[in-house]
Write a structure and sequence with these properties.
This protein has 382 residues and is an alpha/beta fold. It contains 15 helices and eleven strands. The chain has a single domain, classed as Metal-dependent hydrolases (TIM Barrel, Alpha-Beta Barrel), CATH 3.20.20.140. Helix 6 packs parallel to helix 7 (195-203). The longest helix is centred in the middle third of the chain and has 18 residues, at 130-147. The protein is globular and about 65 Å long. The two termini are 27 Å apart. The model has no long low-confidence stretch (mean pLDDT 90).
Length: 382
């Protein structure tokens, strides 16, 4: 099916089933747990601690059809009846055996599993509150169970809060088998003070995943996790969706995280990668200028060294990336991603990915399709 040896989907998602919170949430929070309110006239509504989500207009709306692209739920035309959230979720988005069947049908060997609702709701709650922590714990236990019998083909990424117990929480996650974790929500406008998380993640050889929707953009705007501006149009906001990745990469270098935690590895998702060569040229110019001005606390090395001399930073890429135009060193950091089951997922990943992979040297095509993700998955980074 594929023209490469192996395929790993670096950015797959689950759609959290409605019974997750009922069955896995701490009983003390079940009366206030996340739930979905049925609304046949405008699509189901997500309730967070009893209040409707401000960021998600609707959940569900249409039942996905086999072999067709998944529609964008937020931009469905008005209709007399919207399908429920439950009906709108493919079975493969929440059931382990069904997901494995989808992987087989799509020619994919393994996939990372990120949350979907979990990318949004923490932005509308206090992400370090007992309420949020209980929901993170419930989600982690559920997604671990979903992936349990997949012989390593389903790779769950845990959610965690940046609380005083973050080291103990990572210890527990490592003990139950997790090796991938998202950057904690609620780190504020700086990475300073997150050292306990970084240190524990390095000790247990966690990969830290930085998903565009769930990372702080580090700018003093109304929301630390949202760059959308009410006064700007859709084009302005969509183009700038890559900025969180650029800003967070600058923050990691600025705080010398890559120097102080040299065994820590990172994966950026939905931030693109084609911007990186030009960005690194600018970053090197800034580093040299500040160094000549005797600025303190600079990264120990020119920014590009962290990409050419180390195997620590990776990027998932979609169909929009022109991989043939990227340098070889960036192809060795780029990982194929489908974003399944979100809108825009290719109806047939195999045929869709043939086009961007075919122009590459076979070694690079194999690296993007699976080799880079396999190095990220391996205990020592390969």
């Amino acid at each position: 099916m594929w023209e490469v040896e192996r395929v790993i989907d670096a950015d797959g998602h689950v759609m959290e089933p409605l019974w997750l919170w009922r069955d896995y949430l701490d009983p003390a929070f079940r009366d206030r747990g996340l739930r979905v309110l049925r609304d046949a006239n405008d699509g189901d509504k997500l309730l967070i601690d009893g209040a409707p989500s401000r960021l998600i207009r609707r959940l569900g709306g249409v039942v996905p059809r086999e072999g067709q692209k998944i529609p964008d739920w937020n931009h469905l035309p008005c209709r007399p009846h919207f399908a429920s959230y439950e009906e709108s979720c493919t079975v493969a988005s929440w059931q382990g055996p069904a997901r494995l069947e989808w992987l087989d049908k799509s020619g994919i060997d393994a996939t990372f599993l990120f949350p979907s609702l979990g990318l949004i709701w923490p932005r509308e709650a206090d992400p370090v509150s007992p309420y949020a922590v209980a929901h993170f714990d419930a989600y982690n236990r559920w997604v671990r169970d979903m992936a349990a019998d997949s012989t390593g083909r389903l790779i769950p990424v845990a959610q965690i809060a940046h609380t005083d117990s973050v080291s103990a929480d990572l210890t527990h996650l490592a003990e139950v088998g997790f090796r991938h974790v998202m950057l904690p929500m609620g780190v504020g406008q700086s990475l300073r003070g997150v050292d306990a998380f970084f240190a524990a993640a390095q000790d247990f050889e966690f990969v830290v995943h930085l998903h565009k929707v769930a990372i702080p953009h580090l700018l003093p705007t109304a929301s630390p996790t949202d760059l959308r501006t009410a006064g700007a149009g859709a084009f302005y906001n969509h183009v700038n969706e890559v900025l969180p990745g650029q800003l967070l990469l600058a923050a990691l270098l600025d705080d010398r995280v890559l120097d102080r935690f040299p065994r820590l590895r990172f994966a950026f998702h939905e931030c693109g990668a084609g911007w990186l060569p030009a960005w690194l040229d600018r970053a090197r110019e800034s580093w040299e200028t500040l160094r000549s001005n005797r600025s303190s606390d600079l990264p120990e090395h020119p920014p590009s060294d962290y990409f050419t001399d180390a195997d620590r930073i990776f990027f998932s890429v979609g169909l929009g990336e022109d991989l043939a135009a990227t340098p070889g060193w960036l192809r060795r950091r780029s990982m194929l991603a489908t974003d399944y089951p979100h809108p825009g997922t290719p109806a047939c990943p195999a045929s869709s990915w043939t086009r961007p992979l075919r122009p590459l040297p076979i070694s690079d095509a194999n690296a993007v399709a699976a080799g880079n993700a396999a190095r990220l998955i391996s205990a020592k980074g390969g």
